[in-house]
TrEMBL record:
GO cellular component: cytosol
InterPro entries: Adenosylhomocyst_ase-like_sf, Adenosylhomocysteinase-like, Ado_hCys_hydrolase_NAD-bd, NAD(P)-bd_dom_sf, S-Ado-L-homoCys_hydrolase_CS
Protein name: Adenosylhomocysteinase
Cofactor note: Binds 1 NAD(+) per subunit.
Gene: ahcY
Keyword list, A-Z: Cytoplasm, Hydrolase, NAD, One-carbon metabolism
Lineage: Archaea, Thermoproteota, Thermoprotei, Acidilobales, Caldisphaeraceae
One GO MF term attached to the UniProt entry: adenosylhomocysteinase activity
Organism: Caldisphaera lagunensis (strain DSM 15908 / JCM 11604 / ANMR 0165 / IC-154)
Assigned EC number: 3.13.2.1
Gene Ontology biological-process annotations: L-homocysteine biosynthetic process; one-carbon metabolic process; S-adenosylmethionine cycle
Cofactor(s) required, per the database record: NAD(+)
Key word Lipid metabolism present: no
Amino acid sequence: MNSSKIKKPELFNEGNKKIEFAEMHMPVVMKIRERFLREKPLDGVKISAALHVTKETAVLIKTLSVWGANIFLSPSNPLSTQDDVAASLAKIDNIVVEAWRGMSSEEYFMAIKDAANFKPDIVIDDGADLHITLHEEMPKIAEKVIGGNEETTTGVIRLKALEKENRLLYPVIAVNNALTKFMFDNRYGTGQSSIDGILRATNILIAGKRAVVAGYGWVGRGIALRLKGMGARVIVTEVDPIKALEAVMDGFDVMTMEEASKIGDIFITATGDIDVIRAEHMLNMKDGAILANAGHFNVEVSVKDLEKISDSKEEIRENTVKYTLRNGKHLFLLGEGRLVNLVAAEGHPSEVMDMSFANQALSVLYLINNKGKLEKKVYNVPSDQDQYVAKLKLETMGIKIDELTPEQVKYLESYK
């Protein structure tokens, strides 16, 4: 065992089996791994990563490790680590893992700081806690970073804010903004896995329930679509008039949270903002309403407000806490208000993370190959990389598509 800090090293065999299963369902990453295996393009490169320690993440980390990288893996959520996966990765010599399920806030941020102190050449993040720690607390280390990747909408927003203030210390690839990421990972991945988490935590019947989805970005779209498919009567709340209009024309009811709070049975936040569901909404809710969050941080459902208006709380199922309000009603909070799909379930299916992590791996190579050539900005994934990942995915699914003939290309490029 290397210098990893994990809680259940005895689970490494179970972790090995999980990772093997994920590798079978992530053929794009495996093809890319094999393509660059002999070259060892990351030989000697130090990578610090703050990611959900799941079997899918393990496929990415193992790919980077066999390419020659030395890796420090920390979590991006105190409750999303799969301990068996962490134990499996910790057995690999050039990978250090500091993550376990149920970390305290202090332990979580210590792991992030330890990842920063690894003095990485490349930073891979999911939510930007590691990026922000490097910028705010360790700028001298950050100045020597070649570049970084960011996996989430929330993280990209934070990094764009740094860039706007001219404080970004290294170039970052917004992997989240790749079409082969957000159109599939955010929509189909979160859509399915969030409902998976709700069902594992509660085992409720979705059909016939009024489900309120806060936010109609790609995550909210995916959740609303899957709820509708399972028979829920879906309500969308929004602050963006265009997204609200889109939700209406997609067949959903749209109203304010004040209105929705009075009639909803299930509430799922997916906005990336704070205090989406507050005390005034909670006090309006039906007895027995369920609160869940699918945004990156545990700030969308105001747990602070929930605590203030409650007389007592009790964990009645794993990842389900019943709050008894002072007005006598009961509300059920799932996963402490953290990402319900990762706290109460296993996160996105391997097949959808196949494209996201293919983009992560290729973006690391892009940063290395363009060392010193990029400005300190947030960049989108190169379009040819996006297209390449999509083509590989179709190929692994046994699907062929048409190609333009030379005449068709000429026609489309002509003004006549």
